[in-house]
Each structure stands twice: as C-alpha cells, then as structure tokens.
Amino acid sequence: MKTLASYLGDAWVSGDGKPALLVNPATEEVLAETTSTGLDLGRALTHARDVGGPALRALTFRERGELLEKMSRAIHAERDLLIDLAIANGGNTRSDAKFDLDGATATLMSYAALGKKLGDRQLLVDGEPADLAGSRLQGYHLLSPRHGVAVHIGAFNFPAWGWAEKAACALLSGMPVLTKPATATALLAHRTAEICVGAAILPPGAFSLLCGSAGDLLDHLCWKDVVAFTGGSATGLSIRKTERLLAQGVRVNVEADSLNSALLLPEAEDATVQAFVRDVARDMTQKTGQKCTAIRRVIVPEGLLDRVREALSEQLSTIKIGNPALDEVRMGPVATASQKRDVLAGLDQLRAQTRLVFGDAALPAPLGVPAGKGFFVPIALLEADDALAATAVHEHEVFGPVATLLPYDGSTDRALEIVRAGQGGLVASVYGDDRRQLADVVQGAAAWHGRLVVVDAKVADKSVAPGTVLPELVHGGPGRAGGGEELGGLRGMALYQQRTAIQGNGPLVAKIVGAS
Ligand code: NAP
To answer: Ligand 1: which residue has its CA nearest to atom 35?
Structure first.
C-alpha cells in the first residue's frame, strides 16, 4: 500500500504512529495510508523561516511569478493521471476532478501573470503618498513579506485547488509555505506537491507538505507566521482559540461554512430563469454538493415556484449516481463515511421543517459499485412553505447534494430578509432583469457576503456559475463564512504582507520604498 510521506526541511519523511487510511469512497478500497506522529514540526517551521523565507524574499515579483508558472505547467503535464487520482480518492467524476485541477493550475497562472505585471521589484507600495504638515514631509505605506511561514490547512473537497490558491498568494508575496491537506483526500494534494518538489522549481525551504493530522503544528508558530485555514466552522473556532496563536498574535484567516443563496427576481426573462435553474442544478450535484460555494437556499417568487420546481426536478432526474470511474456517472459519493453520516443527519434536520419535492427518501442504488459499498447519498430538493420559519435551512450546512426552495411574495425587502438569514456567506447570486431591483439587492446584500453574482438575460449564457471561485475576485465572507478573505489579485497577497507606514522627507522616502 502507498504511504504518503511529508516533505519537511527539504526531505521526504514519514511519521511512525498508527496511520490514517485513505480510501476510494465509491468502493471503500484502501488506497494509501499516512501519519504525522513523531514528525518534528518545530524544526520544519524553523527551516522554512530561516532558509525558504530569505530565498524567496531575494527574488523579484517577476521571478516568483515564474516559479508559479512552472508549478502550474508541471501539474498540468500530469493532468490525466491526476484526474484518475481525484476519481479514486475524492469520489470525483472526471468533470469534478477537472474543476479542482484546472482551478489549481489556472490560479497559479493568474498569480504568475500578476508577478510579471508587478515586475522587477521585491516590495510594493500601497496607495498614494500622504502629504503631512503641508511641507516636504510625506508618508508612504510599504508592503513587505512577513518573515515567517504561511501555514495552510485545507479542506477535503478541493485537494488540488485548495493548496494551490493559497500557495500562489503566499509565494508571490515572498513567504514560504507549509501546506497541510485534509487527510481523507490527501492523495491528490500529495501527488501535485510531489510533482512540484520533483521538478525542483522552488528554492530550498520554500515549500513543505504535512500529510496526516496537524499534531502540534500550531504550538510552534510565532507572530511572524500566518495561518490560512479552510474547513468547518467548529475546526476554525478551535484553531482561532489556540492559546499559542492568541498569545503570539498570529494572523489567522478562516474560510468556513456558508449557506449560499440564489435569488430569482419576479419578471425575470426566460433566459435568466433558465440560467437560474441551470446554476442551481449544477451546484447541487457538482462535486456531490461538496463545495463551500454551492447554492443551498433557492429563493423563488411564489409566481415562479411551480415552474422552477418542475424545471429543476427535470434536470436533477438526468443525473446518474454511481462509481465516478464510469463515464455515464454524473455524481459520485461523498468523500468519507463520516461525511455521509453528517449529510444524512443534516437532511433529517432540514426535512423536519420542509418537504422533499425531488429525490429519493431512500439511499440510491449506485451504478458500478459492489452491493452495500460506497458513501453514496441521495439528491434532495426540499421546499419550505414559510421561508423564514424553516430555521434549520438558514443555520445548518448540509455538505452534500441538498438544496431548499424558499418561496417569497416577490418583494425585494422580503427576499433580502431571507438572503440575510444565512448570517454571512461566501457568495449569493441574484437573477433578474429589473435594474432597480438588482441594485437594491446588491446594496442590501453586499455587507452580508464576500461575493455577489448578478445574472441578467444579457449575460445569462456566459455567466460563471456562483460556485466557481475566480482568482481575480475575492473569496471569503463575513459571519458564518469565517470572516476571511483570499484571492482577488493583489488583495489576496495582503494576508502575507506587513503594511508599514514610512514617513519622512518625501523624495527620500519615495526613493527608499521604490516609489520614484
Ligand atoms: P474540517 O474537518 O474542519 O477539516 C479541515 C482541515 O482542518 C483538515 O485539513 C483537518 O485535518 C484540519 N484540522 C482538523 N482539526 C484541526 C486542528 N485541531 N488543528 C489544525 N487543523 C485541524 O473540514 P472538512 O470536513 O475537511 O471540510 C468541509 C468543510 O469545509 C465544510 O464545512 C465546507 O463548507 C468548508 N469549506 C469551506 C471553504 C471556504 O473557502 N470557505 C472551502 C472548502 C470547504 P484532518 O483532515 O487531518 O483532520
């Protein structure tokens, strides 16, 4: 059986404790094992800080960008094999696997292009100089890379994109990375990391990989380091509360759960309604609904409810569930046995306040899977009579192919009340053709979200679905979503930079910071 080693201190090392097993979630076949017990994480972090940090900081943005481009190309060169790994260990269909992998390589490329644009500099200046005291005195804001390690803790659902998007921002900023993928689906993260290490792209100390549990990792961090976490709210809270992180004032970014909504406005044109139905159906089933950005709450004017329910049910009925290794399968299992338990328990919780309008109450009989095997869950479209009375829909994230139709009377105020009941989210989308109403929704929902997707008939056929995170736009959201912010071009680098105000003789300071 394959053992996943960690890459720490520029060497592949294995732990010595009882290993965790990585399985194929469709067949339950054991694929690999890994453990981090006994690994010296303190030493690994010191090596990254002392060796990787200076090496990266000595490079210009253009040079760091070139490293990202090489990483992207090296991963892309093994795309077919990596897709097979995602199918085997992630329960991904081919299309799900491409979504993760191409997201990883595209994000690395996007930050490579940004590096080129930033050019032959090592530091950035933020904004315009401020005139002080009406004389030669001026102040600038300098952005310099923090001298610690960017510790990245990832969720199980995006084993490739999840680490690559964080690494792109940190490495371009000039910070070394230690990435810890979720254990259950680490096969793909491990192989993509192995490819980059094998190609000797990054300078020594710039990249570390920790496979297996986090162990005492956080207890070795200091104020210079950064933690960027993606995962469940409960884990996010326990990381935030870690005494060492609080005592050292370590910067922590949390990307957590979200009860994303899609809102259809009354009088929407046909093309807009079709885009709405298409996006909801895709979000429910892509990656078996295991996307932090997936639409969970489907807010529909009463006058369009029958039409939307029917159209959605028709689209969902074409989805074949089974072993994602089969071409005809459109939806695989969830990633682990415990995810399956959580989805089924969550579904019961939602069903206590709603009714099932599409889907099987029983577990599906999946295609191409040994009887009784696999972590399969049913697709479930639920409906509430009173959108706000179904409180569980606004409070509990069911991380699977589950969404709830929430009718409203067509008034923007009521629609906004329902949208906001999610208490802060990663993304919300609004579909309509009345400019005034669209503007009211954007203004009323913006402070509750990290991203809003506006779809009208003019972009209905080209709009990027709300579930797709783009490197050019920020990802993260307030409240329930964790309060974090990543990506968004330069904005995603801020987490890894110290902003320092430099004041003094204007022309001199301008020279020092490289602004003239
Ligand atoms: P999780 O159970 O919270 O685990 C996330 C990561 O945290 C894993 O790498 C896990 O390691 C690690 N971890 C667990 N306990 C830890 C601790 N005490 N200290 C340090 N690290 C610890 O989440 P998940 O089940 O993998 O992911 C599903 C959740 O992630 C969903 O709720 C989803 O909404 C959310 N998510 C959010 C985003 C976003 O961008 N906002 C994106 C994707 C997913 P092990 O695997 O070794 O336990």
So the answer is: 231
